[in-house]
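As a representative case, the lines below give one protein's residues and fold tokens.
***
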Amino acid sequence: MCNTHNPILCIVPPYMLEKVVENGSEQLRNQAYRILKQSYYFRSQRTIIQQRPKYLWEILATGTDAHSFEKIRHVYDAKQGETLPGVLVRGEDDPPTGDVTVDEAYDAAGATWDFYMEEYGRNSIDDAGMIIDQTVHYGKNFNNAFWNGEQMVYGDGDGELFSRFTIDLDIIAHELTHGVTQFEANLVYSYQSGALNESFSDVFGSLVKQKKLNQEAKEADWLIGANVLVGEQYALRSMKAPGTAYKNHPIIGDDPQPATMDDYRTLPPWEDGGGVHINSGIPNYAFYLAALELGGKAWEKAGLIWYRTLSDKLRQDANFSRAARATIEVSREVFGSGSLEEQAVTKAWKEVKVL
């Protein structure tokens, strides 16, 4: 079920949906099975989108000046249908609508745009002024959110297993970061390069949330999707402790993510793209360790290193080892040879046994 070059980039991984098919109620099983089947269509759609020439992307970004440093957000309502983008319900500078889902999507996209601009000087998702288009109320009880190569799409959840997919800022920032990766390293979505793709999204999803809350690394929860999975003790992933985001869940069981290469999962390409959502726990944990070691605001040092690595150093087929060495190289270039930053990054990758 995996097209490794042009996948749908969803926040809920296929292994969770497969558990729902196995263990959920009839309604949940049918919904999960339908989402898994729909991924074929989304993948083909994304293939067409990604084949557009770069100059066309720039024309489409703003319609006028592709390098305008202006935040432009559009939120559309699919009204439980599946035709994109839907009806425009909120544009840039429009007042809140009173629809919590619309307004959460609008605000979170703004927080993500602000983060990338203020911290790294990035001009929207493509660094060329791309309009951030988002569609809410997609499908009926749709249990996912995804980046389709061109825009964001959010389901409302079923209210039993998943809440609305705009409820967590880090989910929205995670998915929008898939767009950043698409326009930078464009990491192939399989095996270790795919796990890196997922990890970069988790890293910056968490950092956007931490900046919004003005948290230091030691204060953050380092959870991804702490509210979308119904139940106070559950989250989608934990960067601080991979494999502990959910335990003994009555439908989806236990979090399968490893924290180190000792527990790396070797999977066939048709199973989660060779483990892209599962093995992303390893580079996630490396980032957490580096950020904690450096202290302070994680986006200022560790985040800067990871951003420059993504934008300047990695190729499509990068693996964990190459990413590790690239982050060490960037830390040396930015902070100096033998710096505390270089030492912290090196120590982190050694601790997760990539180096």
